[in-house]
Specification:
Residues 507-828 form the DUF403 domain. The chain is 46% helix and 13% strand. By secondary structure, the chain is an alpha+beta fold.
């Protein structure tokens, strides 16, 4: 395995250095033990390890989102089983260089938003700063206490042709990847424990420990128990998994812009209990989107008034707003001189060679060498993509030159670095792929310096000779190993974190609403599966000589299916009843149509994804299984019978999710809101099925079949037979499904469960009188307890309709709607995302 890699390296004549081997085919000393291990296990075992790594990440729910791809949501994270490796001596130099660079950028940040002496004295051209959208004038003269303004820093590095590591990009605004780095290491540790232990691979937990301690030390007024939230753009963001993961891992509250509000100068978190003051915001939202009042007024990701709260020192935002100016690639051309001026030192880590076009001499150089350079806008964004000069035609080059001439200060030319290759396991063999390494640095307020994570996130290109390594372009992630000289202690992440008092993690209203709808869509999906499954079975068993609309049982079930799913006109039209198969298959597969099974399961998964920081690892394994089943169900060209078998698999997995959460979720508002949603939906569906399946009396056999199917849909047929031991009759069916408090599928049981969960919510226990929602619920419970089953089971001799039953069920449905409305108003209304019985917010696909 290694021999073929070395042979190819010797004879391929590529201009790239290799991380593992020399051009002569000799293995670098720090790679020898790792290469020997790969040789010993062989290709077959290595392939198995690759599958195991993928399984570990998949079961842990590690995903990312690809923009512009219909199937790009929740894409599995890909990890190469071959790491990026640094030997200890080289890492010590790299560590020093990263600390120096971070300290330099920190001083530049302080100066740009302070005295601006670097601009006044000519070390930085003013056009380079004031024309960059990352420079926020509103942040002028705003600073954190202490000298460290830049709290988190990342840089993308690659090894150049001279063997040195070069900085390609500085990441200071909302650097991502630290969560994925931890998951990569966790997966590799499980699969290669001996290899990691024998090579004394350094642990990366110190980074997270330092970050947590730094947050405690930075808190305004030295507050002992700060409320820390991680501000995320939301579930559609590229790295939302990481936002949820870090929040859960480090004990922060995951929040979206809609979860926060500014009042009285303070930032508040909207929770189901009320407003909770926020002390620290770790933002993963780009600075321009953080406050629509002062920056982009079209942003729905930020918090109105946040900047003013920062000015008044009522909240800390990390990294501070305005940090993105340091990502300006034009600064790289001036860093060596600034380093000499501010630090009195040469810059240890060189930047990729950069020419800022705002200077005549440099612009001339760029024009003369454009075919060998990468042309970049000084502001990184989706509208300003890098251009490789060598890929342009003469006409395109000329057009680009004209654009630069119009705004020369907005462009830089950068050298195209032939960065090194690293071995990657591709197509069951080792192949050389160009790789980039992302480092992570965090402020250490105790030592007044910076600490570098001894590792990081490396990414390699999926194609040979290509330099595009981002996740959006299909890049493959790699764990990064820093080899130590001796074995490190086995202390856990939490061992060195300062002892802090217990703080209950509050539940944001938006999260509570998502949990409520998670329960709703769980029951909605389960009821829909059961009813479609029974309808398909009845349809396949029906007499072919009788039209569907002439079959009272099948016609009633089909119309009930339309009523339950709300997919009007559906089977209410006679034409659809004549040929029901297309509509039945649509109810199973059509994800774009509200109310279908696919739509309900997709909505269930979307709500689960939005609260993933509240769900256990085992729960995510079940959710992944449901997602895979949904994909198979949608993409397969199925007959009705194949659809029937698919539904069997789906209902089992939905019930597995329910069972797992009964055992695993702590009995906090998270649990109670999930179950309130479940039981409201269950009661509403129970009423709908009773009202539509048993609305009319037919002949004796048809009535028995409809009653049996009604019991089956409510999982109560076995219970009925056990209790009544008689033929099916209306009185017994209604008693079991309405009045029996020990039957979990009865209306009374479901309403009592809603009440028991409601009593535990904030502001309920302290109330001397019943809340409005509990009054509505009590009214429904009282109506059920006072109802006369004999009256409800009486059929009108003329119309053959159960008028009293229908009227009674309409009253219960109305009270359920009222209860849901009041719950929404009391706990979710300020999230502004819809109505209580219908979730109207846009649901991105997963």
């Amino acid at each position: 395995m290694i021999e073929s890699y070395l042979t190819e390296k010797m004879f391929n004549n590529e201009p790239f250095l290799d991380e593992m081997a020399t051009d002569e085919g000799k293995i670098h000393s720090h790679w020898k033990q790792i290469a020997k291990y790969y040789n010993q296990i062989g290709s077959e075992k290595m392939g198995q390890f690759q599958e195991e790594v993928a399984r570990q990440l998949r079961e842990n729910g590690v995903t990312y989102n690809v923009y512009g791809d219909p199937d790009g949501m929740n894409r599995p994270w890909i990890l190469d089983p071959v790491p990026m490796v640094f030997e200890s001596q080289e890492w010590e130099e790299l560590d020093k260089g990263l600390v120096q660079r971070t300290e330099l950028l920190n001083l530049i940040l302080k100066d740009l938003y302070g005295e601006q002496s670097l601009i006044k004295e000519g070390f930085i051209p003013f056009e380079l700063i004031y024309n960059h959208r990352g420079y926020l004038r509103q942040a002028q003269h705003i600073k954190l206490d202490g000298d460290q303004q830049l709290i988190q820093y990342s840089s993308d590095l690659a090894r150049g042709p001279n063997g040195k590591m070069w900085v390609l990009h500085d990441r200071t605004d909302a650097p991502s990847g630290a969560g994925y780095t931890f998951e990569n290491r966790a997966a590799m540790t499980r699969v290669f424990p001996e290899l990691i232990r024998e090579n004394h691979v350094r642990k990366i937990t110190s980074y997270y420990q330092t970050f947590k301690n730094t947050l405690s030390n930075l808190t305004l007024n030295n507050k002992e128990n700060p409320r820390v939230v991680l501000l995320s753009p939301g579930p559609t963001n590229e790295t939302f998994f990481e936002h949820a993961y870090i929040s859960s891992f480090m004990g922060f509250t995951l929040a979206f812009g809609e979860d926060l509000t500014v009042s009285g100068g303070y930032v508040w978190l909207k929770t189901i209990k009320g407003l909770e003051k926020v002390d620290v915001i770790i933002r993963r939202v780009d600075d321009l989107f953080c406050d629509p009042l002062e920056y982009r007024n079209d942003s729905h990701l930020g918090v109105v008034g946040l900047m003013e709260a920062v000015r008044q020192k009522k909240v800390l935002v990390i990294n501070p707003l305005g940090c993105r100016v340091l990502e300006n690639p034009g600064l790289m051309a001036f860093l060596p001189k600034i380093s000499k001026h501010l630090l009195g030192q040469d810059l240890s880590l060189p930047s990729v060679a950069t020419w800022w076009c705002g200077q005549p001499k440099e612009m001339k150089y760029v024009f003369e060498h454009m075919e060998t350079l990468v042309i970049r806008n000084i502001y990184r964004g989706t509208a300003h993509k890098s251009v490789f000069g060598g890929e342009l035609s003469k006409a395109e080059l000329e057009k680009l030159k004209q654009s630069i001439k119009r705004n020369p200060y907005m462009f830089v030319g950068q050298e195209m670095v032939d960065f090194s290759t690293s071995p990657s396991w591709i197509d069951n063999k080792l192949e050389a792929r160009n790789a980039v390494f992302r480092s992570y640095v965090v402020a250490d307020t105790e030592s007044k310096s910076y600490k570098v994570m001894p590792g990081g996130l490396s990414r390699s290109s999926p194609k040979k000779g290509a330099f595009l390594v981002s996740n959006q372009t299909g890049g493959i992630s790699k764990d990064t190993w820093v080899l130590g000289k001796k074995r490190e202690s086995t202390s856990s992440y939490s061992a060195t974190i300062k002892a802090q008092p217990l703080i209950r993690n509050v539940l944001p209203s938006r999260t509570g609403e998502r949990l409520f709808w998670l329960g709703r869509y769980l029951e909605r999906s389960a009821y829909t599966v059961r009813l479609i499954r029974m309808t398909l079975l009845s349809y396949n068993e029906a007499d072919e000589d009788i039209h569907v609309y002439e079959n009272p049982v099948l016609g009633t079930m089909l119309k009930t299916l339309t009523a339950l799913t709300g997919t009007l006109p559906g089977f209410q039209e006679k034409a659809t009843l004549k040929n029901p198969e297309p509509e039945l298959l649509s109810l199973v597969h059509d994800i774009s149509k509200s109310g279908t099974l696919a739509y309900s399961i997709q909505s269930f998964l979307t709500n689960a994804y939005a609260v993933r920081d509240r769900l256990s690892l085992d729960t995510w394994r079940i959710l992944d299984s449901i997602s895979e089943e949904l994909t198979r169900m949608r993409k397969s060209e199925t007959t009705l019978m194949q659809a029937y078998h698919n539904l069997d698999n789906m209902v089992i997995k939905l019930m597995a999710f329910y069972g797992l959460n009964i055992d695993n979720m702590t009995r906090e508002p998270t649990w109670h809101l999930l179950n309130i949603g479940r039981f409201i939906e269950s009661a509403a569906n129970n009423c709908t099925i009773l009202k539509n399946m048993l609305h009319q009396s037919f002949d004796l056999e048809d009535n028995k079949e409809l009653m049996e199917n009604t019991l089956r849909c409510n999982e109560s047929l076995v219970t009925y037979r056990y209790r009544y031991r008689s033929n099916l009759e209306m009185h017994g069916v209604l008693s079991l499904l309405i009045l029996h408090e020990d039957n979990p599928r009865s209306l009374i049981f479901q309403l009592l469960e809603i009440d028991s969960h409601l009593k535990t919510l904030p502001n309920q226990e302290e109330a001397e009188l019943f809340s409005i929602e509990r009054k509505k619920l009590l009214e429904a419970i009282t109506k059920i307890r006072l109802c006369d089953i004999d009256v409800l089971a009486t059929v009108d001799p003329e119309t053959k309709q159960y008028h009293e039953l229908n009227h009674f069920l309409d009253q219960i449905i109305e009270l359920l709607h009222d209860t849901s409305d009041v719950i929404y108003q009391n706990y979710f209304s300020h999230t502004g995302s819809g109505y209580s019985m219908i979730q109207t917010s846009v649901l991105p696909e997963i």
